[in-house]
Amino acid sequence: MHEVDENTEMGLRNPSDALHILTRSGPATSGENRPRGGHQYVLDPEDAEPGPAGSEADSAGGRGCHVAKPRHGSFGERRSILDEYELTQIGVLHSDDVLELLTIYVREYHPYCPLVPAYLLGPSALERIRRVDFFLLTVILTIASRDSTKHSVIHRYCWNHAQSLLLKVLLAVPWTQTPRTVEGLLLLSEWLPHVESKYLTSGNPKDVFREGRTTWSLVGQAVRLGYALRLDRAAFRGNGNSTSQNQHQNRLIWMFTYIADRQISVRLGQSFWSRGPSLSSNFTAKDFPTLHPTPGLIDENYALILQANLELTQILHNAHAVLYSSTERTLSMIHEGDYPRYLDDFMESATHWDSRWKDMQVSPNIKHALRLLYEYVCLYINAFSFHAVLTRASRPRASERYRLARTQPLDSCFNGGIMSSPDARYIIGAISAARSLLGVMNELDPKHTLRYLPSRYHLYGLYAAVFLHKALDADAIQGTTQKEEVTSLAQRFIAAQKEVSSTESHICHGYSDLLKKLWSSNGSKRVPATQNDTTSSTTLVADTFPKALLQDPLYPVADSFGTLGYGDRMSTSNVPDLAALEGGTPDFTSFESYLFGSLWPELASVGDSGEQGCLDQDAQFGFNFGSVL
Q1: What are phi and psi of 298, to 5 degrees?
Q2: Model confidence pLDDT, tens digit, residues 55-107
Q3: DSSP states along 460-484
Q4: CA–CA separation, 144 and 427 (whole Å)
Q5: Distance between the two ends of the chain, CA-based, in angstroms?
Q6: What sequence ranges are listed for the domain Xylanolytic transcriptional activator regulatory (predicted)?
Q7: Phi/psi zone of residue 223: left (φ > 0), alpha (ψ -120 to 50 degrees), beta?
Q8: What per-residue string of b and e applies to 352-369 under the rule 16 or more CB within 10 Å gives b?
Q9: Residue 92 and residue 63 in contact, taking contact as beta carbons nearer than 8 Å
């Protein structure tokens, strides 16, 4: 009778609730296996198990390859759960290999994203690994072997196995529906295998953006699975006074999910909008006890580092949300000139963050990583002003179009010197941040520090190098000495990226080649001397806006009252360099035209022939346009 009362009390808001009631009411369902709580069901990681590791459905590493028989001598006669791991069964991995790779991961990668539970990283990891950890373990081994030539074969097997497990994650196979899977997805998004990066130098311009799209997909899957597991509730403080260790870990996972979401959203202009910390939560380092220093185990105060990252990421997200909230709002701010108050507020917050955290006692590598993120945020904020100046010169309001029909040289924006521009302090701030960012990157050891940074940090440097190149083209950087210093910074960064590369398929190898091509050119889109060596403002439009936007007949432009009307389609006769964009995704010579893609407007650049489907409309009319400004 009690069972009937429980079912009656359960809510019936949707078909999922009906299934919950059915799972509780069946006579064959035992008490231990019933969902806990009537309103949501979260798979208990302790109870979940993958299918037989040796079954054909779970096989990932074989695929026609013959490898040595597994050896278990190092385990003694006692069997371990690792014996059921696919890569151990086929003989690719042995216990010694696992321990070695775990050690590499803890030393080189874990400090930048301290998300993995301690039991998987300690000396007793082999004894404490569970079946539900297999996906996370595979990701850790894939990452740890990516920059080690000694483990190149293991790396390929691990990545193949990870891809097969990713399919199970996508299909929501029950044993994958755990917080450990979310952790694995987030880590993989930070350090993609280099075997995927080989497409960067394949010669196909669309492959330049493959790494970003893969990262976007992985973060999206992590966000969705996090919501499915109710991890988003960790964004709120519980009602009770005590919090279990699992709740602490779930909160940690969701904070890293939030950071990953905001970072990739700014980078691509496409957001998953994972729930961040609630307005009333105000989480600080004390809310992440598992990251506090532990004598003999954890020397770094990862809790403080996470708090600093959260605060800086929030500033970055707010800047993105305000400055690029929509096409109409962004153009209105540019033409009305009312954005300085926002830039001042954002920079005040960033400066306050710097004064608070710059003296934090952490290891040099972590301090450098925080500094890179800070300089990137400063560059991202101030660069809006630089683009606003160029946009006003190149795209006048609808009422001014006929009066300003004649194009202006690109360098006319700063023909009186940078200090004559009302936007001077913001543009100088952007140039200073870009130079500082590259300066920090150039100070780091390419083979012992830069190599192990998450991929997005290399993109911060890429963003800064392209910005400085565009600033030189616009004559915003004046004086022979300053130009030589900026060029030297960029050249050193390009050389460092080449040195970082452990193989030709390394993503930094591709970045180095692309940047070298850009900086070796005589200006980004300069017209030959026979045409008076000037670059028109309409050429700048072709350089700055994606082709999809230029071809849109309903592309909005602000009228004299600051409201938006719809201009006529821009013809190729009025845009000299638009022809360069007609062949699909531009080649790298026009990569600087994507400077204001927040980092890269990767989704907007994919498949101009309809390959991107719905994403193309997002690029034209939605959130992504703001990020290319």
Answers
A1: -120, 115
A2: 333 333 333 333 334 444 444 434 578 888 999 999 999 999 999 999 999 99
A3: HHHHHHHHHHHHHHTT-S-SHHHHH
A4: 40
A5: 64
A6: 215-295
A7: alpha
A8: ebbeebeeeebeebbbbb
A9: no
